[in-house]
Amino acid sequence: MNKIKLFCFPYAGGSASIYTRWKKLIGDSILFYPIELSGHGKRIMEAPYKEFNDIINDMLNTISKEDIDNSSYAFFGHSMGALIVYELTMRIYKENIKGPKQVFISGMSIPENNFYFKNIHLLSENELLNELVKLGGIPQEVLENHNLIRVFTPIFKNDFRLLNYYLNERHQDKFKCDLTVFYGSEDIIQEQDILQWQNYTEKSSSFYKLNGGHFFINKQFQDITKIINGILNNGLQVK
Questions:
Q1: Per the confidence metrics, is the pTM higher than 0.85?
Q2: Is residue 136 part of a domain?
Q3: N or C: which end of the chain has fewer CB within 10 A?
Q4: If you average pLDDT over residues 65-93, what whole number do you get?
Q5: Is the CB of residue 126 less than 8 Å from the CB of residue 203?
């Protein structure tokens, strides 16, 4: 029985390390791939992306190295990572590459109706940090470390710039696989905008409302991985 591969994409300003605690929780039947973006984490010395499409080109190259044409795989992405999942999947369809068996979207409204993060990249450093604190996306130890602030602020700003550019476009293509959506009970993103994801797949969709704000993923990782394990273990593996 072949294992299904799970590729996980981080939120704006995040790195593959946000999924560190998932490693011990993801089932043995799943091959776990936390993805690193250029200019982030272990790739921090690499050039940052200039356009959102640069992310998709890079990510397609990254996952193609894992022989996706000859294996079953799934995507998970939170916030900006969710939009990466969406655009990457649409590119895969366009290029007639074998698509994912399952997609997990987390903490993001539909691409067509997403204005929650518009122009954040234009804020001053202090204004940006205040916004991130409100969202719950920056640890206290980072706030108290001026050296870390100097490192992470340009990364956040560039990611939000890419996101802003992306949000100026219209996106209405649909997934051709089952879709599972996670969202926070206290997120700034309205539930009605989250639920519209059901119109973005030709297959079935399911929704899980978890306690927390926009970065509920950092506290609810046990529940999220339990749901992912259940879904991927129920019929998605190639026997």
A1: yes
A2: no
A3: C
A4: 94
A5: no
Q: What's the rounded Cα separation, in Å, for the pair 230 and 236?
A: 10
User: For the chain, what is the domain count?
Assistant: 1
Alpha helices in 68-138 (DSSP H): 80-94, 125-135
Whether 32 and 22 have beta carbons less than 8 Å apart is answered as yes
Range of the domain at 193: 4-110+173-233
Four-point Cα dihedral 215, 217, 220, 224, nearest 10: 150
Residue 23 sits in a domain whose CATH number is 3.40.50.1820
**Which amino acid belongs to residue 119?**
N
Under 8 Å CB-to-CB from 146, ≥6 apart: which residues?
Answer: none
- What stretch of H or E contains 215? none
Q: Is 37 inside any structural domain?
A: yes
**What is the rounded average pLDDT for all residues in the chain?**
88
Q: What is the pLDDT of residues 216-238, one digit of tens each?
A: 999 999 999 999 999 999 854 33
Kindly state the tokens that stand for 209. Answer: 């409302």
What does the pLDDT read at residue 125? Answer: 75
Q: Are strands 205-210 and 178-184 parallel, antiparallel or unpaired?
A: parallel
- Counting residues of the chain whose pLDDT is more than 90, the rounded percentage is 64
Residue 14 lies in a domain: yes
Bridge partner list, 75: 7, 103
